[in-house]
Amino acid sequence: MCELLGINSSAPVNSTPYLTEFFSHSVRHPHGWGIMREISGRRVVFKESVSAKESGVLEDIIKGTEPQTDLLAHIRLATVGGMKNENSHPFTAADLSGRVWTFIHNGTIYSGTALMNYIACQKGDTDSERVFLYLMDEVNSAIKKDGELSERRRFEIVDRLVCTLSPRNKLNLMIFDGEVLYVHKNMKNTLSFKKLDNGYVFSTVPLDDGVWQELPLAQLTAYKGGKLIYEGTRHGGVFVPTLEYISAMAAMNI
Known about the structure:
Helix content: 10-25%
């Protein structure tokens, strides 16, 4: 179980209040944190395998984060994989065309034989990283076949991925490809959004007293410049917690 935060807007958003509240939840999610933000026109990822509460640099990062049009943040409660930097989110990589993808995930993968192929080559040992490596392989395979991918083609690849992996798995995620933010949840009441004047804030739980709405369930949505641009397949892969899952979460005081 983790928490996710995302911002997509046509005009820079003051993210400090959202980041401050979001990272305060690290008391319940103490096994790592990370952030993707823009600095001087360049996207930068910083992450640590310590609790955000105990970080010696996070406070300065929050204070130094200028208003952002696109931002991702993550706090981790380890269910698969130990506490090390390679297991902290976001995960990021460039595809064969040079496009940089950034990925955060909240959930656990219980099935999906295709992901097992990545155990030997991943840097850490989380199921989340395996999902990201699978995504990058799908993107790169399409580039080898078709050349540089259109915006719509990239969306179709991500949509196919969530439809393929959602059954029997908890697959709440956010992906940013440098232009488009993809957002998906497949468990009820686990990801909300707040409409801003020029865009959206997405969070696992509401971060202030504003009006927050539930994200569509089991359907990928994509945003660019603060606007909803694509809605994906309404699939049936809704994750319903088992008694074992509920007991495990209760044992971790979630």
